[in-house]
Amino acid sequence: MTSRFTYLTGAAALLAALAVAAPAAQAAPSVPPAPPAPAAPCNADSLVKETLPSGTTWQMCWRIHRLHGLILEKVFVSSPRYPQPVQVLGSITVAQLNVPYDNGETEYNDITDYGFGGEYLQTLGGDDCKGGSARVGSDNAPEPARRAALCVSAEPSGLAYRLENPDQDRPPLAKQGHDLVLKAISKVGWYEYITEYRFGDNGRITARLGATGDLSPGDYTTSDKGWPIGKGARAYASNHYHSAFWRVDFNIAGAGKEKIEQYDTKRAGNGAGSAILKTTRTAVGKEGTFTKANRRWWRVVSPTSKNKDGHPRSYQLETGANDPYEAHPETTPDVTFTQQRPCERFATGNADPQCRTSKTILDYVRNSETLTDPVMWVRVGFHHVPRDEDQSPMPVHWQGFDLTPRDFTETNTLTPPERGGVNGQPSGAP
Q: 50 near 152, Cβ under 8 Å?
């Protein structure tokens, strides 16, 4: 069994300030002038407000917590077509990182046992924030140190859309997308973790945890629990898990009190040309844990805020590659919904003295409270089977999920003027 150690890099100069210019946006004729900007929700040192090349603006507050590391709060979005800023999130943060080794000898809870803040938070330098802006902040440790801890940058996200122009004399309608990217780096033991959030110009939010650094030099095992690293087949680096949890508190349009809905699509027979699939909605009215199934997904929906089509605004949870660690019941569910409780801050190993009898998400849901102000806990697991290429340094591997807007606006936020009138079924269509 190896022990964890702390490590701090030397001081680094601040990187160049982020300069993301927003071109003049041509709004549709029906869009009213932008209202006055709301008052900043936090002080200047804690505020991130950036406009992407498309004109989409994201605004949020950030801080560093001794255990959670990076916490984002009061997240708003606006765009040239929808200039009024609308709140999406109350807060989002990593709420646990469980790391058990397959040989059964070692297991860590990197958030509650060590933390992503304090001495584990890294000062950014060199290529850590190349092309971005390193923001200075501090955590709430007994002796907080101010350091360049947050990287803010704008990055191309690929083709946002393409449509063959109905006017055949003109080129296709196409646009490159961009993300506003916020990240912090924490070193715990041999691993270096990148907490990253990406805010797309189409309203999408991506939460990711990257792992790099090095393989533990002391965790070697037998061939059935590891992978041969180095010459021949003598040294087997131990396989292990990274079960990451995020705590997501929505606050759509600042109203809160969202509803949770689960959607399942199942086969209901055969049609003339394909199978008939039927989609049903199930309201999730009480606390509980839930697991993915084929064609199953969840959304968090506002009961009061609607888009211009009269549809309730919501965000949909989308998970990608995701391996549950079934050895612990609390690391098995893909998503958990709980009632908002101030002391329920960590998915496992809850260290808050106000919640001494509630240590994991399973404790939080045991009394099946009615959800009037829900919190979403997302677990994304990655089983790391080492490979020769992991030495050294280890290439970054990622795990995470997307929050995709569903009916947040009545049309695409990036819709070009030529398509501004397309909304709903075309006249005369069957």
A: yes
What is d(CA 169, CA 175) in angstroms, rounded to the nearest whole number? Answer: 18
Q: Identify the CA nearest to 111 among candidates 347, 337, 329.
A: 347
Distance CA 183, CA 80 (A): 26
What is the distance between the alpha carbons of residues 96 and 328, in angstroms, rounded to a whole number? Answer: 14
Task: Identify the H or E element spanning 404.
Answer: strand 394-406
pLDDT of residue 142: 57
Torsion of CA 414, 416, 419, 424, to 10 degrees: 10
Q: What is the pTM of this model?
A: 0.89
What's the CA gap between 250 and 400, in Å, rounded? 18
Is residue 200 scored above 70 in pLDDT? yes
- HEC secondary structure over 103-155: CCCCEEEHHHHHCCCHHHECCCCHHHHCCCEEEEECCCCCCCCCEEEEEEEEE
Q: Decide if 49 contacts 78 (C-beta within 8 A).
A: no
β-strand partners of 122: none
The verdict on residue 364 lying in a domain is no
Instruction: Provide Rg for the chain, Cα atoms.
Output: 23
Distance of CA 313 to the CA centre of its chain: 19
CB 296 within 8 A of CB 263: yes
Q: Output DSSP code: residue 362.
A: H
The pLDDT of 328-355, averaged and rounded, is: 92
Residue 44, helix vs strand vs coil: helix
3-32: per-residue pLDDT in tens? 443 333 333 333 333 333 333 334 444 444
Structure tokens, 118: 């304090």
Mind listing the pLDDT tens digit for each residue in 111-130? 999 999 999 999 999 999 99
Number of domains in the chain: 1
Q: Is residue 227 part of a domain?
A: yes
The domain that contains 167 carries what CATH number?
2.70.98.20
Rounded CA-CA distance 241/239 in Å is 7
